[in-house]
Known about the structure:
Elements: H1 2-8, E1 20-22, E2 46-48, E3 53-55, H2 58-80, H3 100-122, H4 130-157, H5 162-174, H6 184-194, H7 207-222, H8 225-251, H9 255-259, H10 267-272, H11 275-294, H12 299-324, H13 326-331
Organism: Lysobacter soli
InterPro entries: Haem_Oase-like_multi-hlx, PqqC-like
Pfam families: Haem_oxygenas_2
Amino acid sequence: MRDRVKRVFANVSAIAKFPAIPVKTRGRGQKGVNLAMIPAGYAPAALDVRHRRVRFPPRAAHAMRATRLYRTGCMSLENSLSPLTTPSFPVAMHRGEWDRDSFWTFADAAKEATEALAAQKMKALENMPVEALREFCTQYRFFTIEYISDLALLLAKLPFGGLRSLLSQILSEELGEGDASRAHPEIYDRFLASIGVPRDRLDRGLPENRRILGALTQEMAQRDPAFGVGLRGMGGECLCQTYLSVMFDHLRVHPYMQENADRIDWEFWTIHTGEEDIVHGELTRAAIDRYIQDEPGALPDLAQGYERSITAWNRFWQNIFDACAPQRSAVS
């Protein structure tokens, strides 16, 4: 252990200069370092064995805090999918501690955790009764509708710049670029009709999910633009593509979908799980990164908006599972 510490840690005289991160003890009287908590690419500056603390340069210390936050966040995400809990995704950093690197590591880890949990939950689609499957798909349409309205509200609040221009282009595409029949909610409704959902059932949204979506709109109106960027810019454009890709992977292997594949209108899924939406996600990320560089003080609100989106999104889907597959939720 001593040789390993010598290889990893250097410059003990620099201990007092840098922030400290607590380390774990391995057994009675043996001081050990939890090396798994060290972010890739960051070399610790020194080890304070007596006080069981590691000193890192400031940037590495921020990344360490972020790593601890991500792991806490992943646990919170997992808990948020339980029907017995209220979703929580704590943002542990204070206003002055965010930087671009820690924010994007946080965002990437949250997205990966969301994707893994979505994959776990969406497996239920593969064998869901056909009527329940239709109801499940119908409930998603309300997110699509409210997303468009919220994106328009966000655009009205953003300053002129690359992010505003990009999101306005995405909004135009969502609305059919001047052709109402090409608006994405209309395209999705054609998919629903092709799997046997009657038109008179399209407006029967779950009351709790309508409340969630209404609360997001209210927060969009009341909070700063940066919060809205996290909530509907990252949350809507980036997380939405993640969820839809996972949903489609499990949806298309359902026996009913396979038996009727030739007559089902797949256009919505071609748009939202194909290259076009992946490009949207990458362009949105790049535009938000530029926004962060121009407005570094916006990082805390941006992170809070993204956190809010994750918890609301997970609660939204859990409510749908509770309604469409209650017997599964009861034992999960």
